[in-house]
Amino acid sequence: MFIFSIATAYHDFAGKLAKQAHLKVGRVEFKKFSDGEIYVRVGESVAQKKVYVVGTTAPPADNLIEMLLLVDALKTAKALHITAIIPYFGYGRADHLVESGEALSAKLMANLLHCAGVRRVVAIDLHSPRVEKFFTMPLVHVRAQELLARTIKAELFNDQSSALTIVAPDHGAIPLAKRMGRLLRARVAWFEKIRPQHNVAQLGALHGDVAGKIAVLVDDMIDTAGTIAEAANQLKQHGAKKIIVAVTHGVLSGPALERLKQTPIDKVIITDTLPNVSQKKFNKLRVVSVIPLLAEKFRRI
User: Fold this and answer.
1) Which segments of the chain are extended strands (E)?
2) Which of 118, 142, 166 is the last residue of a domain?
3) Among residues 217, 243, 244, 248, which one has the fewest Cβ atoms lying within 10 Å of its Cβ?
4) In order along the chain (301 residues), what is the average pLDDT of each group of 10 residues?
5) SS (H, E, C) 223-242
6) 19: CB partners within 8 A, 6+ apart
């Protein structure tokens, strides 16, 4: 079976996944015309074959266009069944309407994939249960918490005497915190949070005890790191002995890296679901790969 990827963003990712899942990387030609339009041509015979496409709906917009055109090219070439592998599902946070007149972007992304010809989606840690319901085709929702939990244990190998508290930075992350708490056999704490506007968050009271403990902040993503940075500062004020951040998607946009560098966080653990994460380095950051996790799923689907 062939696996294809969008032009450059996930080329290396697809190659590594192909090797571990025993797939063949399919040839595909991408080029951009002078007016900015994108041309896609599949260079393999895929008629009546099952194929996989690795891509994302996240910005820049070319990622989405390349993915839709690639899926359409495969469908036109009479591929039997197209599975989209989406390590990071962009626009997932726009999963409900806050004000009238807003676009329900997460639902639109799911609909576009279906209209293009995708017949199954494999996604990692979608933002909310609402997003799962937007997919009208079969969805394989891969969870990265066990991978993150194993990494946390490795980080704390020389500090196993200290108690852990898993901390959710807001109410929405509580299910993730509880899941991680079960994996690490730790208690759970959480912050209250309000968002007065987009990309601006204010934390309220902390529910739970972190004094003298290793606090593990968990969420599905870090974007601008405003919430995580404020939570880390408050955890230190509440007496946390050590602070570890463990999230799946390292968006790390805007001031994120500078904010994280200036916090009392001891370690930030993210995965490689976003292609540019290798370019965003600092000494507290550790990146773990989801590719073995996806390869294992391939053996089951």
Assistant:
1) 2-5, 24-25, 28-32, 38-42, 50-54, 81-86, 120-124, 139-142, 164-168, 187-197, 200-207, 214-222, 242-250, 267-271, 285-288
2) 142
3) 243
4) 93 96 96 97 98 96 97 98 98 95 98 98 97 97 97 84 90 94 96 72 88 97 94 96 97 95 96 88 93 89 72
5) CCCHHHHHHHHHHHHCCCCE
6) none
Strand ranges of the sheet holding 120-124, from the earlier edge strand across to the other edge: 24-25, 2-5, 50-54, 81-86, 120-124, 139-142
Task: Please give the pLDDT value at position 181.
Answer: 96
What pTM was estimated for this model as a whole? 0.94
- Report if residue 246 sits inside a domain: yes
| pLDDT at res. 195 | 67
Q: Is residue 183 within a helix (H) or strand (E), and if so which, with residue range? A: helix 174-184
Q: Which of 19, 24, 107, 193 is catalytic?
A: 193
Residue 66, H or E segment = helix 61-76
In 74-186, beta strands by DSSP E: 81-86, 120-124, 139-142, 164-168
Q: How many CB atoms lie within 10 A of CB 205?
A: 8
In the chain, helix, strand, coil percent, each to 5? Answer: 35, 30, 35
Residue 22 lies in a domain: yes
Backbone angles phi, psi at 46, to 5 degrees: -120, 5
Q: Which residues have C-beta within 8 Å of that of residue 121, sequence separation ≥ 6? A: 83, 84, 86, 110, 113, 135, 137, 138, 139, 140
User: Is 35 exposed, middle or buried, given 0-12, 13-18 or 19+ CB atoms closer than 10 A?
Assistant: exposed
- For 51, 205, 245, 252, the CA distances from 21, given in Å and listed in that order, are 13, 46, 30, 29
CATH number of 100's domain: 3.40.50.2020
For residue 280, indicate whether it is catalytic: no
